[in-house]
Amino acid sequence: MKILPFQSPDSFGSFWDTMLRNECNRMLCRSSVWMVSFVICLTAVVSAQDAIDRQLFSPEWLMQHRPQLKLTDDQARSIVELVQQKRPEIERGDQAIREARTSLEKTLSFRKIDEPQTMQAFEKLSRLEGDVRRLQFGLMVQLRTLLTPEQRVLASQLKMTPQANGNVQRRLQAKMARLQAELQKRGATGQPPTQVVRWMEPFSQLMQQGKIREAEDRLNRALRMVDLDPNAIAPAVLKPSEPSFPKREIPPLVAQSAAEIRQQVQGLKRQDVPWRKIAWKTSLLDGLKASRDENKPIILWVFIDRPIDDERC
User: Fold this and answer.
1) Mean pLDDT by 10 residues, the chain (313 residues)
2) How far is CA 310 from CA 6, 267, 273, 276, 304, in A?
3) Helices assigned H by DSSP within 146-279
4) Do 91 and 98 meet the contact criterion of CB atoms below 8 Å apart?
5) Structural domain boundaries of the chain?
6) What is the DSSP letter of 14?
7) Which residues, 6+ apart, have CB-to-CB distance to 143 below 8 Å?
């Protein structure tokens, strides 16, 4: 056994910093390798999305393509209501995933690893992640049922266009850039993200095989492992369009005299109508007398349409 000759505590600290720096460099180098391979293979296979992916549509994607799909206000409102209904459950699932990941990391940090306990923590984490994916998949299935058969066919065709593929490419590149920046940030502070880098090793192979959904799921989990929200860069769900009212131009303010203002107020008064000239007391008494004489019930109509200057009000 080789004993390192540390002359002082400072020399040991220097040695440890060097070891951490080398480890960080190795990790960042490995992350750079799959970053470059990701960019190379993404442009080549982004159009090879599987048939399932072409049949499912996220709420963000549907609202972005609302004009092309001709979604009605009722459809847009139903999309928003479904998202609001599912969001609390998905957020609780994400919170449970974060707690389970913290527990697994704590288990792995022990000097003596309890294998059954570690596997149990891993199975719990996998189960929770599966539950969240099931919720997300169920949401997209419900969204699909809101579309007409013609809208489903059109949506699938839109997903196969080069523009749609470009959107997938930009989304994955943006997520990868965020992950790369966070890895470099943690590596520079002496916290080598070994678990994240190892988790991302199969990513390039998935991309080369055209399994974009599986690759993005792995990328999303890597972002959560470094406390980043995968959906932070996704466009927000738009609300149904509100009816637009024509804008009225307000004329500039002009100073007016008291006489001009009084003349405008007089012009706002309504013209008298014949029934207003009937005296209230006379009309009521005549009606009661006719009801008594003819032995018929009286129906009294009260018209609340008196001008403010009517002294009888």
Assistant:
1) 41 41 50 48 47 83 88 91 90 90 87 88 90 90 92 86 62 83 80 76 74 79 83 48 53 72 76 58 65 66 51 52
2) 106, 17, 13, 10, 12
3) 149-159, 162-188, 194-199, 203-208, 212-225, 258-268
4) no
5) 17-233, 274-313
6) H
7) 57, 58, 59, 62, 79, 82
